[in-house]
Amino acid sequence: MSLAELFERAKQLSPTLAFSTVTRTIARLESTSEVTRIDWRERGSHFEWAADPHHHIVCRICNTVRDLNDSELGFDSRLVEQRTGFSINRHSIELVGLCQRCQRSNN
Ligand SMILES: [Zn+2]
């Protein structure tokens, strides 16, 4: 979820909460790798609790997001490391397209 969404939810629990408290908390969780920032350029940064490496497929019309795992993408980080000589710390791949619902309403 985005910072704005997070702030809205947190405010329901604690109405006096300051936005700066949320940004500071997220920055701390990010520095300890407890949350991951996903940089979706057009939509702004989103944050997720750190989990197994996974990826996202995003609908460019309604912004529906589905998680994908490495095996669904056929992604093998060790193979990429062998081919590029990089050592990979984390990876997140974003695929963009049209969900089934938007494909139907687009036809
Ligand atoms: Zn859609």
CATH fold description of the largest domain: Dna Ligase, domain 1
Query: Largest sheet, described in full?
Result: 3 strands, mixed
Tell me the count of domains.
Answer: 2
- Which regions have little confidence, pLDDT < 50, spanning 5+ residues? none
Q: Name the structural class.
A: alpha+beta
Q: SSE string, helix = H, strand = E? A: HHEEEEHHEH
Mean pLDDT across all amino acids: 80
Compute the number of strand runs. 5
Percent strand equals 25-35%
Textual characterization of the structure:
The protein is α+β, with helices and mostly antiparallel strands. The protein has two domains: 1-51, Orthogonal Bundle (Arc Repressor Mutant, subunit A); 52-107, Dna Ligase, domain 1. It has helices at residues 3-13, 19-31, 70-73, 77-84, 100-106; strands spanning 35-40, 44-49, 54-59, 65-69, 94-97. A three-stranded mixed sheet has the order 4-3-5. Strand 1 (35-40) and strand 2 form a beta hairpin. Bound molecules: zinc ion (ZN).
Fold blueprint:
Layout: H1 3-13, H2 19-31, E1 35-40, E2 44-49, E3 54-59, E4 65-69, H3 70-73, H4 77-84, E5 94-97, H5 100-106
Parallel strand pairs: 3-5
Antiparallel strand pairs: 1-2, 3-4
Bound molecules: zinc ion.
